[in-house]
Amino acid sequence: MKRHLISAADLTRDDALLILDTAEEMAQLSDRSIKKLPTLRGRTVVNLFFEDSTRTRISFEAAAKRLSADVINFSAKGSSVSKGESLKDTALTLEAMGADGVVIRHGASGAPHRLANWVRGSVVNAGDGTHEHPTQALLDAFTMRRRLGDLDGRRVTIVGDVLHSRVARSNVLLLHTLGAEVTLVAPPTLLPVAVDSWPAEVSYDLDAVLSKSDVVMMLRVQHERMNASYFPTVREYSRRYGLDAARMATLPEHAIVMHPGPMNRGVEIAAEVADSVRSTIVEQVANGVSARMAVLYLLLGGSEPAIGKEVSE
């Protein structure tokens, strides 16, 4: 693996499978009374969050602490950033403190890439602008693999606000690497200009693809990133692109429903779908800790088995 995880495109098929296999080992810890490994003892991980986050920040913090790393949580709102400090100066401060790993979420696409040039430690992209969110794609793939087995040839449908979704971009890249076939479903206004260059099919008709899908991933409409009207009304959007119980009934029996969260219940996903047995939304949160433990372990740890002799003794 490379020293940083900035994009899902950084991962070869072997890299991705190594992370998923390691995450499977890490998931075994959740069944134990003591959920800690000594693997990253003495290492420092900084969570550098310039955007609001609940799941991702807590998930990375839990992952680092379960690996016995020291964790520093940095929030832009209560720091020198609010006084105008640049990303580079913040990075140099972290470098002076000896951070071994920096997990960054930033509103500007490309911020993790710039940060990687300024620090010696490993940089993990926890979401940058509308660009990418590679660890979300990894935990999604991990969830699919646990439910469905091998992803080779699986048909994954990603529905909704693809234009503003870093999750969609990372998932398309990673799932393509793992051999899955991805279809993007959205109104034309919510698809990126260069979507033709993505390794995915495009459809504007949700009902036409549901019966052929193994996985349906619903995306939130990101109103906070919109500076114009992308569809007539929320009700109209929900009618054409929302997943309700009637649409869920047309899915194959084994198919699962995913959502990266946070959800807008009643817009892109109905409450009865979100709470159904087909939904993996709560599993995704739990699997996020395992997947991020695997990433931190492989970037900062070493070549020893993740759950090895030291722990079993």
Protein architecture, described:
- With 313 residues, the chain is of the alpha/beta class.
- The protein folds into two domains: 153 residues, Aspartate/ornithine carbamoyltransferase (Rossmann fold), CATH 3.40.50.1370; 149 residues, Aspartate/ornithine carbamoyltransferase (Rossmann fold), CATH 3.40.50.
- Helix content is 37%, strand content 14%.
- The chain is built from twelve helices and nine strands.
- The chain has a five-stranded parallel beta sheet with strand order 7-6-5-8-9. The protein has a four-stranded parallel beta sheet with strand order 2-1-3-4.
- The two termini are 29 Å apart.
Structural class by helix and strand composition = alpha/beta
CA-based shape: globular
Q: What is the CATH level 1 assignment of the largest domain? A: Alpha Beta
* Succession of helices and strands: HEHEHEHEHEHEEHEHHEHHH
Please state the second-level CATH architecture of the largest domain: 3-Layer(aba) Sandwich
The parts where pLDDT drops under 50 for at least 5 residues are 309-313
Radius of gyration equals 19 Å
- Quick one: biggest sheet? 5 strands, parallel
CA distance, first residue to last residue = 29 Å
Q: How many structurally independent domains?
A: 2
Tell me the fraction of residues in β-strands, as a range: 5-15%
Give the spatial strand order of the biggest sheet: 7-6-5-8-9
Number of strands: 9
Q: Would you tell me the overall average pLDDT?
A: 90
CATH topology of the largest domain: Rossmann fold
